[in-house]
Amino acid sequence: MKRFNRLIVLVAALALAACAQQPVEEPVEQVDTHADEAAIHAAVKEWSASAQAKDADTFASFYAEDGILMLEDAPDAHGIEALREGIGGMMQDPNFDLSFEADKVVVSRSGDLAYETGTYSLTMSDSQELPATEQGHYVVVWQKQADGGWKVVVDAPVSDPPEVPVAE
Question: In this structure, are strands 150-159 and 131-144 parallel, antiparallel, or unpaired?
């Protein structure tokens, strides 16, 4: 009987030890991703309106302090000052016209990052000072800030290829 009791105590001790070694899962805070998606959609509308108004300061305010704008055939603009200067210079062009619209916003389960995809249209002066329009798609990465607001950390527009006439 003593041997049986020792066996039960040993099995119980092993079971307790196994339970003690299991990692305890922290409760996951529920994030309202729908509210965050709606907030980003609203921010995109305000951001696009600032481009239409040629307001470089407001336009740049949507970026995080260390945000990056990755334009084709141009050096990346790193930081809010470089972004403000770059977009401000573009907005000086008399033919400047930029509009964009989000097709999709996805917020991470943790609620700290999101990405947005959409389309844009940009008109600038060509070499003969005539308006030249480029259209394309983009990916923007948003990061939630300490105050609960969202800022752009990566902005990567990609122009659509030019249409090639088809020979008949």
Answer: antiparallel
Whether the full predicted model's pTM is greater than 0.85, yes or no, is: no
Q: According to the model, what pLDDT value does residue 1 have?
A: 47
Regions of the chain short of the pLDDT cut 50: 1-20
**Can you tell me the distance from the alpha carbon of 44 to that of 150, in angstroms, rounded to the nearest whole number?**
11
Domains defined along the chain, listed by start: 31-159 (3.10.450.50)
DSSP track, 41-76: HHHHHHHHHHHHTT-HHHHHTTEEEEEEE--TTS--
Q: What is the pLDDT of residue 26?
A: 57
Sign of CA dihedral 56, 61, 63, 64: positive
For residue 28, the model assigns a pLDDT of 55
Beta strands in 126-164 (DSSP E): 131-144, 150-159
Cβ-based neighbour number of residue 137 at 10 Å: 15
Q: How far apart are CA 22 and CA 143, in angstroms?
A: 33
Paired tokens of 158: 């990609």
What is the per-residue pLDDT for 9? 38
| 138 residue type, one letter | Y
